[in-house]
Amino acid sequence: NTLAAFEDTARCAAASAARSEAAVQQMEPVDWWAETDLRVTRDGHLVLLHDALVDRTTNGTGAVSSFTLEELQKLDAGCWIASRADTGGSHFSWSGPRFAGQRAPTLVELFDQFYLTAPELNFMLEVKDIGAEDGARQLVNEIQSRPGLANRCIIIGFDPVPLEMCVALDSTLRVGFTVGEPTPEKIDRAVAMSAHHVGVAG
Known about the structure:
Elements: H1 3-17, H2 21-25, E1 32-40, E2 46-48, H3 69-72, H4 79-82, H5 107-114, E3 121-129, H6 132-144, E4 153-157, H7 160-169, E5 175-179, H8 184-192, E6 197-200
Parallel strand pairs: 1-3, 3-4, 4-5, 5-6
Antiparallel strand pairs: 1-2
Helix pairs in contact: 6-7
């Protein structure tokens, strides 16, 4: 969930798209998806962080929702990755010291950096905690304000409420309902929101 990690994914996507026509004819085209997690700060900004607490993935402590954006972006969100040995031997390795000092980016920063510069890159946006209707409206507005971006996004999550809110705001958006167990009630709810898919978490 750092911009440096997305830069790696964008370079991979661009390299894949640049393959020769002959090579493409010999294999299925690859769709490149960058998955990230959305939470909301105390002052209402959508940020990319996996955990409800910043303790594991930054050098700070406390709930994401307890920080303003300014406070949150003073934390080092790459230190936990930078401290791990880079054993991949690749420019695209997910760990190593080059991640040190990364900030927790906002959704706006993600889109501003990659919407135009990485047209091959698609976004799977997992809604973790976005503050109910205000967060859903902000998410939808950010997608709608960039022509064609909706075709490159799928909004996913375990909580059906924000997914339903997003669909209510824009019925053309694709959403995926993630469930622990695909019960008939959950499948019915996915159908009711016209979900693109139901994901089953193992």
